[in-house]
Amino acid sequence: MTPIRGPLARLERSRDELAKAWLVRLIERASLDEISELPTDQIARELPELISDIVGSVADTNGNPYELTEEQADRAASLAALRGGREAGAAEVARDVAALQTVLVRALRDELAESEPQRFAEAVERLVDATGAIQAAAAEELIRRRSRELESQANTDTLTGLGNLRHLQKQIAQLLELHKRYGHPFGVLLMDVDGLKRVNDAHGHQAGDRVLMQVAMALRRSIRTVDVAARLGGDEFCVLAPEQESEAAITLAERLATAVQEEVASPDDPPVGLSIGVVSCPQHGADAEALIDAADRAMYRAKAAGDNVALGDPPSADLGEEAKS
Description:
The chain is α+β, with helices and mostly antiparallel strands and 325 residues long.
């Protein structure tokens, strides 16, 4: 980029004051709630650098003001988060950038309009292009954020915040692909919450929902970062444990059962616990349906026996049971 000299260099050196002027314009048209949510520390840290990016683009008459470096694009993208806890809309981002453009045009006018009117006009033209690039980068980041948010909502159980059935299906498909390519095993723990119906009948569904959230919290605290916990619906949960064969998966299941008993313990009610069926790939199958079916059988054996955990039977044993029935 062309070195910044003359009036534009003075403008660049005034970037902190310009950032403050821009912040004042934001505050002037914001409500009290919006003002309280403005991330002023982030603005003070990032906006002066963003102003330097724009002034540099204006000074570089041989460059393309629409082309941003990766670092500049990241700074521009930060404008999508200037509304703090409240997600900004595209119109708000556009207004924020327009306010910044106004501050910079006024600064250019003070430096160039009277002494070099032709240069002032050219600088304003390049400034419009540069701020257009900033706005485009911020809008793209806004779209990416919304896309990630929608994807997260589509894969998240709204009550517990864990993954949902759709998310579990995607994750188990990925683990099966890893097993097919590289032979990596993984465990599947299918679990049912024992005692939830009793809680619902005695205290209502809100109390039952609190139990489900407590179960989810216990699972989240007890699994590894690589494990996947999901609520399948009702009182059924599932955990996928990459790189775990049956023995390690059983140890994990016992830890989860203990964690839930401790998390949901109530002195006034009978205990709430888990019945967990444990299987692993490839020992109990090499496709999602076979694994879930074997884990489901094991889970109901655990429930019938009054145990927390039961290991699934090998595929041949399952087939034998079907033939007998």
